[in-house]
Write a structure and sequence with these properties.
Blueprint lengths: L1 E7 L7 H12 L4 E7 L16 H12 L2 E5 L9 H13 L7 E7 L7 H11 L7 E2 L5 E3 L15 H23 L4 H10 L6
Parallel strand pairs: 1-2, 1-3, 3-4, 4-5, 4-6
Length: about 200
């Protein structure tokens, strides 16, 4: 059974993205062990001179490394991702590069009609940065629009078509994880490039 880490990309106490990840965790329990990680307790990024991550950030990095793949669910704020998610990615990129070559699936729920489409687009760009270099599953946007009305009282998606769409994407992600984790030849090169990367000299 696969082991996935799902990252809730917001510090909101009430978030439909949390409900979405809880649904994914429950719905696919027979296919994967999925842990939900809350980033709301992580400190705001503050560039450390010694590149040492705070304890909570290092805990997240360790969980990412132990997982077969990562699922990130993000809302959309002002056409982009929440500040706390960007801060988390900055910690990971600057201190430990835990996401390098890690298979990643993107999901998102938003109150508006378009879901989190623009946030996911920005997130893809960020995850391709030299010190992140995650392996994002292509052509796999899963978007929940009007998310306040999307779930019933038990946290289950009401729209059966959206459930079927999610099932197809999740099954594709399992195959994507298998394929990606076989492509290990470039991993050492990416790690060295990230470790030696400097915006001041590039």
């Amino acid at each position: 059974m696969k082991k996935f880490l799902s990252i809730l990309g917001t510090n909101s106490d009430y978030s439909t993205n949390r409900i979405l990840l809880q649904f994914i965790q429950k719905h696919f329990a027979d296919q994967a062990d999925i842990e939900i990680f809350e980033i709301k307790h992580l400190p705001a990024f503050n560039k450390p001179e010694d590149k040492t991550a705070p304890q909570e950030v290092q805990k997240l990095a360790d969980k990412i490394r132990e997982a077969d793949g990562v699922i990130i669910s993000s809302p959309e704020y002002n056409h982009s991702v929440p500040a706390i998610l960007k801060s988390t990615l900055e910690w990971l990129s600057y201190t430990n590069q835990a996401l390098i070559d890690k298979p990643v699936m993107l999901t998102g729920a938003s109150y508006g009609r378009l879901g989190s489409s623009r946030a996911q687009s920005h997130l893809r760009q960020m995850l391709d940065a030299p010190e992140l270099k995650a392996r994002i599953m292509p052509s796999s946007e899963f978007l929940i629009g009007y998310s306040l009305q999307a779930f019933d009282d038990n946290g289950t998606l009401k729209d059966q078509q959206k459930i079927e769409e999610l099932e197809q994407i999740f099954n594709d992600f399992i195959h994507f994880v298998d394929i990606t984790n076989q492509l290990v030849n470039a991993n050492e090169t990416h790690q060295k490039q990230a470790a030696n990367f400097s915006w001041e000299t590039n």
